[in-house]
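We treat protein structure as text, and this decision shapes the records that our systems exchange. The tokens are whole numbers drawn from a learned vocabulary of local backbone shapes. Below, we set out a record of this kind in full and without editing:
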Amino acid sequence: MSDKTYLRWPFFAKTHQELESSLDAWCSRHIAQDHAHDVDQACRDLVRQLGRAGWLRYAIGGVAYGAAQDAIDTRTICLIRETLARHSGLADFAFAMQGLGSGAISLFGSEQQKQAYLGRVARGEAIAAFALSESEAGSDVAAMQCSAELVQDADGGHYVLNGEKTWISNGGIADFYVLFARTGEAPGARGISAFIVDADTPGLEIEERINVIAPHPLARLRFKNCRIPIGNRVGEAGQGFKVAMATLDVFRTSVAAAALGFARRAMDEALHRAMSRKMFGQTLADFQLTQAKLAQMATGIDASALLTYRAAWQRDQGERVTKEAAMAKLTATETAQQVIDAAVQIFGGLGVVSEMPVERLYREIRALRIYEGASEVQQLIIAREILKAQ
């Protein structure tokens, strides 16, 4: 991508600019852009690559555990996701899930939990997953049915976990899951706790692998009388909703950044196509209709970037960004869908040929308008925050 003037915006420090430049160069040398035939193995390989190269150190918190910084820097997470997404949707996925899957441990984990898991995540030696959603409990977390019953014994007690989780990214290849289950301290969202469940725990089964339009590891999990040590609980009993929301709060703005990376790649591809495609004695870029489309694409991308990095910068200043993160995710994901669709149109018939860059982007962007809060949920959040302020 030739235009990186946005890196000079006041949201960024020199270290952010240097990191983006280094990662972009690394991706050009090491990251394949096509969708792999064996997606599970490709994800395993990407996690190892990202770990060996040191990029996963930014996905966790705590220098003592192998992180680049003690606190996760939101702008850094966003720049990494944007850059990876521009090169490969699967590389972005691999990085994001290492952060999201271990985020609860970074934020709320005990010293023992941090020592046991975070270093391995940062080195790419352990694959993490975040298990929150259920078939009837996605946006409505309070509807969660998966349960963990506390059983007292001579060793101090343990939890017995039963139920299902679905739409779990890295399901089937993860080495551990940070899972949320109802423990019953209070009704609704106040009676949920968070747990670390190792993938080899007896009673944990991969019930179904789920295939989606942009391939990545995804599964439905079943838990049958899984015995979970009390020491695997993350945070206090009954505080799981708080743990989940705080973890999502760190990474929600980065979803907007990933969408931004997809949109920038689509813009680059569209520009190259428009300037090189000959038609009626001129190039496609010479037509005013094409110019109008490019102008709309560029304006939408800049607007998305401003909202995304405003939210990231505010969060790094310690400010609450519920509304700002929702605005960023809503705008960036919806805009990226429009930009990519316009790029496909500019490519014409080539745009729908399998594994053409814009065709890959067309499939990759769609899920971002749904996961970590669908666009409709973001609209409700924004409206709620506006009304609360009156």
Q: What stands out?
A: The CA atoms of residues 139 and 373 lie 6 Å apart. Residues 240-276 form the longest helix (37 residues). The chain has a mean pLDDT of 94. Strands lie at 128-131, 147-151, 158-169, 176-182, 192-198, 204-209, 218-229, 233-234, 278-279, 282-283.
